[in-house]
Design a protein that fits this description.
Largest sheet: 7 strands, mixed
Structural class: alpha/beta
Helix content: 40-55%
Bound molecules: zinc ion
Number of strands: 20
Distance between the termini: 50 Å
Length: 699
């Protein structure tokens, strides 16, 4: 279990401090100068990264910064611009390109308008970019433009939100920040908020920043350092207020003494969340589990049903987590079936509640909206922890990160009062924002997105090629290999959040443990490529039993052990699945003195058929690829050299010794596995990938 909260379990103990360093600041200036980046923008990048590196201030695209500076246009004429965070950039690793320059004068003229739609605002901002290929400037660009300061910092500080997300948050903030800050009522980000913020500032231009109720905090100054250090100082004041008169969350009575194991709970939950498409296939989710003492105190709380259901701590989290998490019952060890029933009801109630929320708010909405899927993005499980839920491991991790931050924010809010964010109609307006609705249906998913794929023997050869091929199709990968470093190297090559695990597949306990690790990491398993194997030789009338048995351990029983664990997880999910076996030419066309290899491979081919027969009713498909003469750990360069020499052939002719006269590669085999994973009507099928060999052909 990872514990990202460990370092910030209690914000009182680990309070903010300024990380400003003159030397670091100058190094940014020096680093970017050769690229034509001026001092203002270089320092803007530096302090933006300082803010973005702290999850208590900024999380996953939340928050933004700007600076006003002068640049030369193509004609060499000086232009006053606003460099403001662009969409798609994270503050923690931003570059100058992530702060596109927008001509300031036209932005300022907009202020005299009465109204401006978000679409027109985005269009106008794009039209005034200095570089047309820049990302869209932040939706809070005009707020930055209408304030006069050179440097402006904006965060969704957890501590500030704990203060403002209160029934009397207004009074608490005024008590904490006094006249040093201006106070802006909640308005959805956009033109209206920008105008309101400027008006509040102009009422008292001596303020160092603005508190945006139930949204976040702005600080500003003439230098990058002052704007940044004002942010740190005011957030520190918020943290100090949270130290006073704290009460702790009271745990609920009757939580099971022995909670069910995460590996048992996760696949059941994942199955319950999957949306039935009606054609035997499911829209699945990937999950990301988190637990820590702070998370447990929160999810075990007697009043979880109240404080967790008020809404998000700051509106832009809605897009990632929806407005409410689903609260599930506490799972008890040995009683997973009744838990599954209760969880199913909780999820059905969540969906019904979501439909009702949509209908209620859509009815009052001026433009009619398209309803989003009704599934939660965060699940809270008393006695266990929380799950982030997403279309990919990356999305699930973002939802989980935000949920962890939410736990901290709400726990602190409850410690000094009671948590109360913006009202439901505001939450709806954010979730169904016209700019977000316009993105619907664009940018389709890859064919194997949302699928969790396990590949054994994935450290090299066919296994490594197969893992990478699945990753290219959008799948989440768990790469198993006896050699941990090799497994991890392949996982790295798969990109994203792929997992590399050590696993000797002939050790049944190790296989069970590996599947548990995969389930704990991603929530379940959808496709298993049982690939690990090795070749033993011997004349069948003379070979030692020990050799034959050793080969059967790896080339038959290990496949059975892997497949059985896969079926166990797939049964818990109840959404079908795919078993894929690496058979061999030896399974259908024995080679002389290859009995010790071919015999278990032949049994493995029938194992594939038996799984197809016994588990077709469960929606589990079972197929194999029959490949031959692939460069790999089983057929090394040395072996190729000696065998081709023994036959009096060149290596090229030996490797291309098939009907087509072409060498077959691990990538060709990987393509067959990927095809079989996608072929929803194919089971009990063996695909031959060998360039053509009549003796080994199946029909
Ligand atoms: Zn904001």
């Amino acid at each position: 279990m990872r514990d990202p909260l460990a370092a910030k379990l209690n914000p009182v103990e680990v309070s903010m401090k300024s990380l400003w360093s003159d030397a670091d600041a100058e190094s940014y200036v020096a680093k970017y100068a050769p690229q034509g980046v001026n001092r203002d923008l270089a320092l803007r990048v530096y302090t933006t990264r300082l803010l973005g590196g702290d999850p208590r201030l900024v999380l996953h695209g939340g928050g933004n910064t700007s600076c006003k500076t002068t640049v030369d246009d193509l004609l060499g004429e000086a232009v006053e611009v606003l460099c403001v965070k662009g969409s798609g950039w994270d503050m923690g690793d931003i570059e100058p390109a992530g702060l596109p320059a927008v001509r300031l004068a036209p932005l300022l003229k907009l202020r005299k308008l009465e109204q401006l739609s978000d679409e027109d605002m985005v269009d106008f901002q794009r039209g005034n970019l200095m570089t047309s290929s820049s990302p869209n400037p932040s939706v809070e660009t005009l707020l930055h433009a209408f304030l006069p300061h050179k440097f402006i910092d904006h965060t969704h500080s957890t501590a500030v939100l704990s203060l403002t997300d209160q029934p009397d948050g207004d009074a608490i903030c005024r008590e904490v920040f006094g006249r040093k800050m201006g106070y802006v009522p909640y308005i959805m980000p956009g033109f209206a908020l920008a105008k309101k913020a400027a008006e509040v500032y102009e009422q008292d231009p001596s303020v160092e920043g603005l508190i945006l109720f139930k949204h976040g905090i702005f600080t500003f100054a003439e230098t990058a350092r002052d704007a940044y250090e004002r942010m740190i100082a005011h957030v520190t004041s918020a943290e100090q207020r949270l130290e006073k008169g704290r009460k702790t969350l009271v745990a609920a009575a009757g939580l099971p003494k022995a909670p069910a194991a995460l590996a048992e709970v996760a696949p059941v939950l994942r199955g319950l969340l999957a949306l039935d498409r009606g054609d035997g296939e499911f829209k699945r989710w990937v999950m990301d589990f988190r637990a820590s003492p702070a998370i447990r105190a929160y999810v075990d709380g007697a009043e979880l049903g109240r404080y967790s259901q008020q809404g998000v701590v700051t509106p832009d989290h809605t897009i990632r987590t929806k407005n409410w998490p689903v609260v599930l019952p506490a799972p008890e060890a040995g009683k997973i079936a009744p838990w599954a029933e209760a969880a199913k009801t909780a999820i059905a109630n969540f969906q019904a509640g979501y439909h009702a929320y949509f209908a209620r708010n859509n009815a009052r909405s001026a433009s009619k909206k398209t309803e989003l899927d009704p599934m939660p993005r965060v699940a809270l499980v008393p006695g266990l922890g929380l799950f982030g839920i997403g279309a990919s491991a990356k999305d699930a991790a973002i939802a989980a990160d935000i949920a962890v931050n939410t736990v901290e924010c709400i726990s602190d809010a409850e410690a000094i009062g009671s948590f109360q964010p913006v009202s439901e109609d505001h939450l709806f307006d954010l979730e169904y924002w016209s700019l977000e609705q316009a993105k619907l249906g664009k940018g389709g998913e890859k064919p194997l997105a949302r699928r969790i794929v396990v590949v054994t023997g994935g450290g090299s050869g066919i296994g490594a090629a197969t893992a990478k091929a699945f990753a290219r199709e959008g799948a989440e990968l768990a790469v198993l290999d006896r050699d941990l470093a090799a497994a991890q190297a392949t996982a790295k090559g798969c990109g994203g959040k792929a997992l590399g695990l050590a696993c000797d597949v002939t050790d049944a306990q190790a296989v069970r443990a590996a599947f548990d690790s995969v389930v704990e990491r991603f929530g379940g398993v959808d496709v298993v490529v049982s690939n690990a194997g090795a070749a033993w030789q011997g004349t069948v009338g003379e070979v030692d039993d020990a050799v034959l048995r050793q080969s059967f351990e790896l080339n038959f029983f290990a496949h059975q052990s892997v497949a059985q664990n896969a079926v166990r997880v797939m049964a818990a999910q109840g959404t079908g699945g795919v078993l894929l076996f690496n058979a061999s030419k030896q399974a259908v066309n024995p080679g002389k003195n290859f009995g010790p290899y071919g015999l278990p491979k032949a049994a493995c081919l029938f194992l594939m058929k038996q799984y197809a027969l016994d588990h077709g009713k469960d929606g589990i498909r079972s197929n194999a690829v029959n490949a031959d003469r692939i460069r790999s750990g089983l057929l090394t360069s040395d072996m190729i050299a000696s065998r081709s020499a023994a036959r009096g052939l060149t290596e090229k002719d030996y490797m291309g010794g098939n009907l087509l006269g072409r060498e077959v590669t691990a990538d060709d085999v990987a393509d067959a596995f990927v095809w079989l994973a996608k072929a929803s009507k194919v089971t009990a099928c063996t695909i031959t990938v060998d360039g053509g060999n009549i003796e080994a052909s199946l029909r």
